[in-house]
């Protein structure tokens, strides 16, 4: 009986050991908490780069895409859709852009460059936005830069497309088969209802910007007024 009991204990031990070494535990990706936004109602200063106005839309459009650094994929455990996670996972060193991974990867080449090919590289102006924001302390700040009396294509719609949409919807990265890099293509989705339906997060349309907050009421109004005016190329 003692031999059988000892044998049974050994077998159970081996089974338990096999279960432990074969078990894979996924470490859940932790979403960092955001700090409160600084400002948002005051006028913008030409000397300041505001995170909510310039940096976050740029990273959401160019980096936090499906299959890259969105909350679902978070490639290499980097998630760039919120301030908290940009600071927690993006390698940002406030005041020191040259040693901040978020800035350095924008200037690399080949497969190491972000956004990676075939996506278009950030322009020098866009790199300068990231550089200056980090240099100024990488704050979660905002200002009021929207004017509903301005609703021309060049003055309102194009900046909105370039800032919030073009990273995912351009000739080299046709998300949903949509390109917003030209007037003709933007006019097309404006006339068929996709543009306003998407930015208003209307049921039945793919909510845009993807995986991010809805555009402000002011910017939605700018687009709506442009459409109501007949989508002129003005």
User: What's the alpha carbon Rg, rounded to whole Å?
Assistant: 24 Å
Round the mean pLDDT to the nearest integer and report it.
Answer: 80
Helical proportion, percent range: 40-55%
Task: Summarize the helix and strand pattern as letters.
Answer: HEHHHHEHEEHHH
Beta-strand proportion: 5-15%
The assigned structural class equals mainly alpha
Note the gap between the termini.
94 Å
Number of domains: 2
Tell me which oligomeric state these chains represent: single chain
Give the neighbour order of strands across the main sheet.
1-2
Shape: globular
- Low-confidence runs (pLDDT<50, min 5 residues)? 15-28, 69-74
Q: Tally of extended strands? A: 4
Largest β sheet strand count, sense and barrel closure: 2 strands, parallel
- Number of alpha- plus pi-helical segments: 9
Please characterize this protein's 3D structure:
The protein has helices spanning 2-22, 51-62, 83-89, 101-104, 124-135, 153-165, 183-191, 194-199, 217-228; strands at residues 38-43, 141-144, 169-170, 173-174. With 234 residues, it is mainly α. It folds into two domains: 38-144, no CATH class; 153-228, no CATH class. The strands form two sheets. A two-stranded parallel ribbon has the order 1-2. α2 packs across α5 (124-135) and α6 packs across α9. The protein is globular, with a radius of gyration of 24 Å. It starts with a helix and ends in a 6-residue tail after the last helix.
């Amino acid at each position: 009986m003692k031999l059988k009991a000892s044998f049974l204990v050994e077998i159970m031990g081996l089974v338990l050991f096999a279960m432990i070494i074969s078990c894979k535990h996924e470490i859940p990706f932790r979403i960092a908490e955001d700090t409160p936004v600084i400002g948002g109602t005051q006028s913008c200063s030409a000397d300041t780069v505001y995170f909510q106005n310039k940096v976050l839309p740029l990273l959401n459009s160019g980096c936090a895409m499906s299959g890259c650094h969105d909350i679902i994929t978070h490639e290499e455990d980097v998630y760039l859709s919120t301030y908290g996670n940009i600071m927690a996972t993006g390698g940002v060193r406030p005041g020191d852009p040259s040693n901040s991974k978020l800035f350095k990867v924008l200037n690399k080449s080949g497969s190491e460059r972000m956004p990676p090919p075939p996506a278009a590289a950030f322009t020098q102006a866009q790199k300068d936005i990231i550089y200056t924001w980090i240099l100024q302390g990488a704050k979660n700040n905002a200002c009021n830069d929207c004017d509903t009396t301005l609703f021309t294509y060049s003055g309102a719609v194009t900046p909105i497309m370039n800032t919030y949409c073009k990273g995912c919807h351009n000739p080299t990265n046709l998300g949903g088969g949509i390109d917003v890099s030209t007037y003709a293509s933007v006019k097309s989705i404006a006339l068929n209802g996709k543009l306003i339906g998407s930015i208003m997060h209307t049921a039945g349309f793919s909510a845009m910007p993807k995986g991010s907050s809805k555009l402000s009421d002011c910017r939605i109004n700018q687009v709506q007024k442009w459409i109501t005016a007949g989508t002129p190329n003005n």
